[in-house]
Design goal:
single chain; mainly alpha; Growth Hormone, Chain: A; 18 helices; globular
């Protein structure tokens, strides 16, 4: 084991100091962020009309994020990604500190709305920069390993964070978990300050609108990108409404917040295990592996809806975590290797936009749908729908049989076509 750990720091992505600082900063902020969903959910549910407020507060963060994503992607391609990430970390630390203060002082949860909106806007600029900076920090051959390391960190944070947040929510209150998240963003900012990307964006004579159009041109000409993005446009509203909104409510009515935190932590354990596997495993057909693995995410929703025992839910959560990690690493690696660096954040912003645009609808409609048809019925149907939609892109041969070499070749062909 010591030899493996030593090799991680002496070869590959972690051997580069710029990626190490970025990696440390992400680790710190991800740990804090791993506590927030559970801490915030149960803090809001304890307030008056909290059951109905939860979905709206989540939507208040997602909606401005979706609206601003395309602009954020263009800005991330136009300016230094490392500086954008730094300023976003500082801004997120301030907003999370404000939310923590509201929760801890017992102030009306309605004051969370403007801070949630601000968080969404900040994320719209930081997310494309964060996804796009990896190829600038490591060699192309190390991109998948870098993504696997980042996924392992995210998994560890999600494993430790929800369990800690669940205990805090059940004892002294979830506001302290959000306060830790705020502190983590400030510490992460100090780490990101040491990141200096080797390349600098050249002068851009074109407007941001023209840059958006160029990003759309690449996105729209790649069926392997927009078909999978289209699947997530349906899947994400289902999962966010059923798992993020209905899940805590069902848990609160049955086995409690502490066990719900454990379930989310075990899901993160599955993420962690699969992330380490992806340090070594490379799929010849990454898109086929990604969507087949992604289908596993529907399992815990079905188990929760059917009402099986908590150990069954835990097993489903582990499987879902493993599938999500494989899919996320394979997908991000495919995008980062198949898209030119100068278009990467824009194309990823279109991917995020398509994937996230329906989430506010899912968050807002989850409670009304559950009140009409039953919480468990909606949860079960959501899990089944997720599995079906995840597998639909594989019906297309161009997605099912596309190899990693084909993806990289398409990026080169596109660049050649522009210079002819």
């Amino acid at each position: 084991m010591s030899t493996v750990v030593k090799s991680l720091f002496t070869t590959g992505a972690l051997a580069r100091s710029q990626f190490r600082w970025f990696y440390i900063g992400r680790n710190v902020s991800l740990f804090g962020s791993g506590m927030t969903p559970v801490a915030l959910a149960f803090a809001i549910l304890q307030a008056r009309h909290g059951q109905h407020l939860l979905g709206y507060i989540m939507a208040a963060e997602i909606l401005p994020n979706v609206v601003m994503l395309l602009l954020g992607g263009s800005v991330a391609d136009r300016y230094r990604r490392d500086r954008l990430i730094l300023f976003a970390s500082l801004g997120s630390g301030c907003t999370q500190a404000g939310i923590a203060a509201i929760v801890l002082t017992g102030t009306s949860p309605y004051w969370i709305f403007p801070l949630a909106v601000t968080n969404g806007i900040i994320s719209a600029f930081s997310a494309p920069a964060t996804r796009g900076i990896v190829p600038e920090l490591v060699d192309r051959a190390d991109i998948q390993r870098a993504n696997a390391l980042l996924n392992a960190s995210r998994s560890t944070a999600k494993m430790v964070g929800p369990a800690a947040a669940g205990v805090l929510a059940a004892t002294i209150g979830g506001g302290w978990g959000i306060a830790v998240d705020a502190l983590s963003f400030f510490i992460a900012s100090a780490c990101i300050a040491y990141v200096r990307i080797p390349s600098r964006p050249t002068a851009w004579p074109d407007s941001l609108v023209h840059q958006m159009r160029a990003g759309w041109a690449y996105f729209s000409r790649r069926p392997w990108i927009w078909t999978i993005t289209g699947a997530f446009a349906v899947m994400n509203p289902i999962q966010m409404g059923a798992w993020r909104v209905l899940g805590p409510i069902i848990a609160l009515r049955t086995f409690g917040p502490a066990d719900w935190g454990v379930v989310l932590s075990l899901q993160a354990a599955g993420l962690l295990g699969a992330s380490f596997v992806m340090l070594r495993v490379h799929f010849t057909r990454p898109l086929r592996a990604a969507m087949a693995a992604e289908a596993l995410v529907g399992l815990p929703m079905m188990v929760l809806g059917i009402g099986l025992r908590v150990p069954c839910l835990m097993a489903g959560a582990i499987a879902a975590g493993m599938g999500s990690a494989i899919a996320d690493i394979a997908w991000n690696t495919s995008l980062q290797q198949g898209i030119p660096k100068d278009k990467l954040s824009r194309v990823m912003a279109f991917d995020d936009f398509g994937s996230f645009v329906g989430i506010p609808i899912g968050l807002v409609l989850a409670i009304p749908a559950a009140e009409r048809w039953g919480f468990r019925t909606v949860e079960t149907a959501s899990g089944l729908a997720w599995i079906i939609v995840a597998l639909l892109p594989l019906a297309l041969r161009r997605v099912r049989h596309l190899t990693a070499s084909d993806i990289h070749a398409q990026a080169l062909d596109f660049q050649d076509g522009l210079t002819e």
